[in-house]
Amino acid sequence: MECVILAAGEGKRMRPLTAKRPKVMLPIANRPMMEHLVMAAREAGITDFVFIVGYGEREIRRYFGDGTTLGIHIEYATQRQQRGTADAVGVARNHVTGPFIVLNGDMVLKKEDITALCHRKPTCMCTTTTDHAEDYGVVMVENGHITSLEEKSRHPKSNLINAGAYLFSPEIFDLIDAVRPSPRGELELTDALAVLIARKQLYSHSLTYWMDVGHPWDLLEANTSFLETIPSTNEGIIEDGVTLKNTVLVGEGSVIKAGTYIEGPCTIGKNCRIGPHAYIRGATSIGDDCHIGHCSELKNSIIMNGTKIPHFNYIGDSIVGSGCNFGAGTKIANLRHDHANVQVCGKDTRRKKFGAVIGDGVQFGINCSVNVGTMIGSEAQFAPNTVIEGCIGEKTIIR
Ligand code: TTP
Q1: Entry's Gene3D superfamilies (predicted)?
Q2: Which of 82, 125, 305, 389 is deepest in the core (most CB within 10 A)?
Q3: Domains 2-214 and 223-398 belong to one CATH topology
């Protein structure tokens, strides 16, 4: 069975983290989110993949290559313009020969569900339940057939939704050819599926596990769930006087200095300097070439490659891009005094605890205070003692 992974989208909802990288390359437990999906499919026995790439495709091609290192074979097909999901699947036309699986690249699935999908008869749509059906395509199912599909309804008829995973036969391409732009100007896969629904030819396949990773805060949840399943490893140097609790992974060339206290699950990439006297709490992922220094505390956060958090910093429930520098004493708040859900740029994170989303290359002077729910665009710079909140555009300079 061939597996087509849709990975051409920009991921506007993930901005500013996607300013310089495609959404599917954002890290979860220090691996691109798409790698977790590919590995689940490989464990389900799939070895032939077609990656539909577009936005940021160079990074995807460079990282995955021809798939040999992962024990799979990858063909790439470029979607020149991100014209919608029907268009993206259509790009796979000359790369598949028989029934094939299509997976949105921005979700987490379990191998067992992919195995079960491979054994179904085409055409199948995977479904799952959610408390936020209004954000997705809501489906109705009767006797195993999908009987209706309604996109992002304000008043969803059920909590059953389209999970973005399918089993198709090549006949889908004829239906895709007939799709015309939707009111929002996209060629939507759901319009091709509507024809199959009318013919009672679209089966429902119910998933046991599903996680959608569309917003920055979804990364934290996915990070926690992956870190909880990985065993501890140490390829670095751990000095005497370091305390490690629960699962902690330390990458090659990293040094954990004396007095550091790490409560996993945590993963630390390659060539990092941690401590002396750093305090890191789970679930936290720290990328390669990072420095977490004296009296800096991290909790439930994702820190990308090359970021420096060197002296007296606190970062909780946050996502920090690559190449950022935190001046001594700069801290991020992560809880509102009224304990209400944290909003980021007008969007409800549905979390009581959330800190900030920080793009790549942001520079903080000493003693900056970043309020809960702040979003900071890439390469912004802040003078010492700046109080930072709200949505800050990229390259903003506060002197
Ligand atoms: P979406 O999540 O709908 O789109 P997106 O990834 O661009 O994200 P955002 O809404 O934040 O801008 O896409 C679902 C999947 O389909 C995702 O894995 C990306 C992929 N996709 C393509 O490959 N090509 C496209 O033209 C579109 C719209 C999406």
Answers
A1: Hexapeptide repeat proteins, Spore Coat Polysaccharide Biosynthesis Protein SpsA, Chain A
A2: 125
A3: no
- Give burial (CB, 10 Å; 0-12/13-18/19+) of 110: middle
Going by alpha carbons, the residue nearest to atom 21 of ligand 1 is 9
Query: Using an 8 Å Cβ cutoff, are 312 and 296 in contact?
Result: yes
Tell me the domain boundaries of the chain. Answer: 2-214, 223-398
Tell me which fold the domain 2-214 belongs to.
Spore Coat Polysaccharide Biosynthesis Protein SpsA; Chain A (3.90.550)
The crossing angle, in degrees rounded to 10, of helices 33-43 and 57-64 is: 50
Determine whether 311 is an active site residue.
yes
Cβ-contact 262, 272 below 8 angstroms:
no
Going by the DSSP 8-state scheme, the letter that residue 342 receives in this structure is: P
- CA-CA distances (angstroms) from residue 108 to 13, 132, 245? 17, 17, 27
Residue type, 15: R
The CATH code of the domain at 223-398 is: 2.160.10.10
- CA-nearest of 36, 53, 66, 45 to 1 is 45
How close is the Cα of 357 to the center of ligand 1, in Å? 20
- Cα-to-centroid distance, 286 and ligand 1 (Å): 27
When computed from its CA atoms, the radius of gyration of the chain, rounded to whole angstroms, is 22
Render pLDDT for 362-396 as a digit per residue (tens, 0 to 9): 999 999 999 999 999 999 999 999 999 999 999 99
Cα distances from 204 to residues 136, 162, 193, 394, in angstroms, run 16, 9, 12, 43
